[in-house]
Amino acid sequence: MKNETNHFKTYQKQNCMETRNSFGIDFITRKCKTDNKNVLIYARITVNGEVKEISIKEKIERNAWNNASEIVNGKTIEVKKINNTIENIRSRIKEKYRALEDKGALITAESVKNSYPGIQLSQRGHKLTELLADCVYYLFN
Fold it and tell me: DSSP letter at 74?
């Protein structure tokens, strides 16, 4: 029995690759329901194709947004403040993603979104190789 378990662990090391998550943060705008001239800015988090959005609570004129660079066009103090806010949010979301990755947590767009304001940090998922190793252990021991 132990020989089979060792064989399985060797097989795991040789043939199982650790999966990597695709991850991205984009900033987009959405129309205001009550105001046609302004738009709201959202952070869009994408993990393995799953998308979640967070409002950054900033409203700008529709024509001030630059889609390509994901910033507000202009040089006023207010525009600079909003652009700094966008970069700070981008940076903090990336930090939260890395923290989840370092913990070995289950990483989804929802878990990254929830960890950004600190809602949820303790959810733990299991990799398929961990589950298989546990099954083999319980079957043969």
Answer: -
Q: How far apart are CA 83 and CA 10, in angstroms?
A: 51
User: Taking residues 39-48, what's their average pLDDT?
Assistant: 95
User: For residues 84 and 72, what is the distance between their CA atoms, to the nearest angstrom?
Assistant: 10
In the chain, the number of structural domains is 1
CB contact at 8 A, 107 and 100: yes
Listing from the earlier edge strand, what are the strands of the sheet with 38-47? Answer: 23-31, 38-47, 50-61
Claim: this prediction has a pTM higher than 0.90:
no
Phi, psi of 18 (to 5 degrees): -75, 135
Range of the domain at 91: 2-140
